[in-house]
Specification:
The complex is a heterotrimer of chains A (249), B (226) and C (218). Helix content of chain A is 35%, strand content 21%. Chain A is α/β, with parallel strands linked by helices and 249 residues long. Chain A folds into two domains: 131 residues, D-Maltodextrin-Binding Protein, domain 2; 96 residues, D-Maltodextrin-Binding Protein, domain 2, CATH 3.40.190.10. The two termini of chain A are 29 Å apart. With 226 residues, chain B is an alpha/beta fold. Chain C has a single domain, classed as MetI-like (MetI-like fold, Orthogonal Bundle), CATH 1.10.3720.10. In chain C, α1 crosses α8. Chain C starts with a helix and ends with a helix. Chain C contains eleven helices and no strands. The chains are: A alpha/beta (249), B alpha/beta (226), C mainly alpha (218). At the A-C interface, β2, α2 and α6 of A face α3, α4, α9 and α10 of C.
């Protein structure tokens, strides 16, 4: 799938210095964005360094003046923080991707696929990303509240540091099920997908992207944005399980 | 040569009160009295290690403390050679470095000679490379005295230097002290509770009890003792 | 992959060593002041020094971000001089030094407190200025405490994560062992994470051995 895009001939990432783009991206994008960025480096000769962490950390760093060129957040809230401080180039802000929530379970004991989110009530312990701080958790809570399941499930929920951590928790069998992104579920062969929340029913999960006001090379940054929004990148994102957004802001 | 020595001050520390009013010309002033009478406090006051209420401390022509004139020379500038009762030799240095600790490095002439004289006087040449912990009581005593002497002090302050030594050692170290008095001409303030030592060394004796001077006078005056 | 792993290991150890050197002068000075001097605001200073110890490392990282970021009171002027802290090796050293400092101060302070003041007093009467007393008497006699503190500070800097990831980012060029393990775990690269874990354990083991040897010989 992504093999066609990972060109190893281009070598390792250089140290940041003048002329290197620094891209802060939400860690849920990691597996798919690394090969894309490498392909971009090979095609254009523009060096890129990826800074992957939780979106709230990334936003704090930009607010403190970190030398970031492009910011890809896992929700609007973190991007808005940076926008409010006037640290984005507003014209460049767009929605890059969307995602889908799914319910997953460990491989053992086998669980049959379900047709309704009520299947969640049959589990004892359910891992989700922290609904207070992590975008994926915020989306999850919004969804559960919208289908009236939040109160019933609240005591069974095990909040984790990130959505990847929730996935790992399900893989280990420490919980009976988890709510993660479809992209996370597809990246793992140690979980089964039990229920996919229909996009129409689910919260609008968005990954906004923008060039920062402090970017040293806005032209190169916009080239990267264009690349990530282009056909080739979209194909890669879709095979990883991302959904193209309903509308670009 | 006798040297003018003024010890006129008041020290208050908690319940303890020490008052001195001595103004003499002497080579060796002995402080005599039972333990707790304040003898060590006198030495520490001269060395600048205690804060005083008021008074004057003068050795020779130098004023170390004068509350009226606002003079209180900090301890490291007083040039007193203090040999405390527990010696306080520096265990992380060898004998040579202990002795030389206070020697000024900016002197050029006379320094090597002065040092030689001290080392010969106290017969310390064989011990220079030894660790302090390898020495006997008497040897350590001599090292402590030598260390105080290399600073070329205005005055040598000795706190019971012979008390911890056995009779034989005492008999051997006492002559050194006499030689220091006679050959180096350094005045001394000497604390002891031993009559014989005081008689042998001092020309002025101050007898203390409970922080007060009971009596003071030239050493040849017979006195009762402890 | 092992080339990368060794590079990350080397970077982590050398930057932790640098952080230790950086924390030594202020650490020893603070330990000395707290051990020997009374002054108004002393309790405040004690608390300030202990802060990185009790606050979550991420919180300390945030504070460092505010101060040393390009828009910060210290980061701004430094940036004008062409010195960038954030997202560079300097940030790694800074985070390590700030997190390790309280441990150094504690141990060194205990070392100084154990030095009998009598030695310092007598050295003074022999003509040594306060500065000379400190260098020739207090510091040598407090050597064990200072050394123990330096080792503690080094170990702390070696394993530092929360503050580091805030100010140095998760960039490949500044990645330390701890950050690498985090990144690899987040992205499901189990093999790489295990390699880093093994390297981390080896280094920790080596550091402990060294520390024991030094402690018994000092």
């Amino acid at each position: 799938m992504l093999a066609a895009l990972s060109l190893t001939a281009c070598g390792r990432a250089p140290d940041p210095g003048p002329g290197v783009l620094i891209v802060s991206a939400a860690s849920s994008l990691t597996t798919v964005i690394e090969p894309l960025v490498q392909a971009f480096e090979c095609d254009t000769g523009i060096a890129v360094e990826l800074n992957l962490a939780a979106s709230s950390t990334l936003a704090s760093q930009v607010l403190a003046g970190a030398p970031v060129d492009v910011f890809i957040s896992a929700d609007h809230i973190q991007m808005d923080r940076v926008a409010a401080a006037g640290l984005l180039r507003p014209a460049t802000r767009t929605v890059l991707l969307s995602n889908q929530l799914v319910v997953v379970a460990p491989l053992e004991p086998p669980v049959l696929p379900a047709t309704s989110p009520d299947v969640l009530a049959s589990f004892e312990r359910i891992a989700i990303a922290d609904p207070v701080a992590v975008p994926a958790g915020v989306y999850t809570r919004a969804y559960l509240e919208s289908v009236g399941l939040w109160r019933r499930l609240e005591d069974k929920l095990v909040p984790t540091r990130s959505v990847r951590a929730a996935l790992v928790t399900v893989e280990s069998g420490a919980v009976d099920a988890g709510l993660v992104y479809r992209t996370d579920a597809l990246s793992s062969n140690k979980v089964t997908q039990v229920y996919a929340v229909p996009v129409a029913d689910g919260p609008e999960i968005v990954y906004p992207v923008a060039v920062t006001a402090a970017s040293a090379d806005p032209a190169a940054s916009e080239r990267l944005l264009a690349y990530l929004s282009g056909a080739g990148a979209s194909a890669a994102f879709e095979s990883a399980g991302f959904i193209m957004p309903k509308a670009r802001r | 040569m006798p040297v003018p020595i003024t010890l006129d001050f008041l020290l208050c520390q908690g319940d303890f009160r020490l008052e001195m009013h001595e103004q003499v010309e002497a080579r060796v002033v002995a402080l005599f009295g039972p333990s707790g009478s304040g003898k060590t406090s006198v030495l520490e006051s001269i060395a600048g290690l205690r804060s005083l209420e008021w008074g004057e401390i003068r050795i020779g022509s130098r004023t170390l403390y004068d509350s009226g004139a606002g003079v209180d020379v900090p301890s490291h500038r007083r040039k007193v050679g203090y040999v405390p009762q527990d010696l306080t030799l520096f265990s992380h240095m060898n004998v040579k470095h202990n002795i030389l600790y206070g020697a000024r490095s900016d002197r050029d002439d006379g320094s090597a000679e002065g040092l030689e004289q001290i080392l010969s006087l106290l017969e310390l040449h064989p011990f220079l490379d030894r660790r302090v912990s390898d020495l006997s009581g008497g040897e350590r005593q001599r090292v402590a005295i030598a260390r105080a002497l290399t600073t070329e002090p205005l005055v040598l302050l000795l706190d019971e230097p012979l008390t911890a030594l056995d009779r034989g050692l005492r008999a051997r170290v006492l002559p050194y002290l006499k030689r220091i008095r006679d050959e180096l001409a350094t005045p001394m303030v000497y604390v002891s509770h031993d009559e014989a030592e005081v008689r042998a060394l001092a020309d002025w004796v101050v007898e203390l009890d409970g922080g007060r001077t009971i009596r003071s006078g030239p050493a040849l005056t017979p006195f009762a003792g402890p | 992959m092992t080339g990368d792993a060794l590079a990350i290991a080397w970077r982590t150890v050398s930057l932790a060593a640098l952080a230790t050197l950086v924390m030594l002068p202020p650490g020893i000075a603070l330990a000395w002041i707290l051990a020997r001097r009374q002054f108004p605001g002393r309790a405040m200073l004690e608390t300030l020094v202990s802060l990185p110890l009790v606050m979550p490392p991420v919180a300390t990282g945030l504070m460092l971000l505010w101060v040393f970021g390009r828009r910060g009171p210290l980061g701004g002027p430094l940036s004008q001089l062409g010195i960038d802290v954030m997202f560079t090796w300097r940030a790694v050293v800074l985070a390590g030094a700030v997190m390790g400092l309280p441990l150094l101060v504690r141990a060194a302070r205990a070392g100084f407190e154990q030095v009998d003041r009598r030695y310092e007093e007598i050295a003074g009467t022999l003509g040594a200025s306060p500065r000379r007393v400190f260098l020739t008497i207090s510091l040598p006699l407090a050597k064990r405490g200072v050394l123990a503190g330096a080792l503690l500070g080094f170990s702390r800097a070696l394993g530092e994560f929360g503050a580091t990831i805030m100010v140095a980012g998760a960039l490949p060029s500044t990645r330390t062992i701890a950050v690498a393990i985090y990144s690899y775990t987040e992205t499901g690269q189990a093999a790489a994470a295990t390699t880093m874990l093994a390297i981390s354990a080896t280094i920790a083991f080596g550091a402990l051995l060294l520390s024991n040897r030094l402690a018994s010989s000092a």
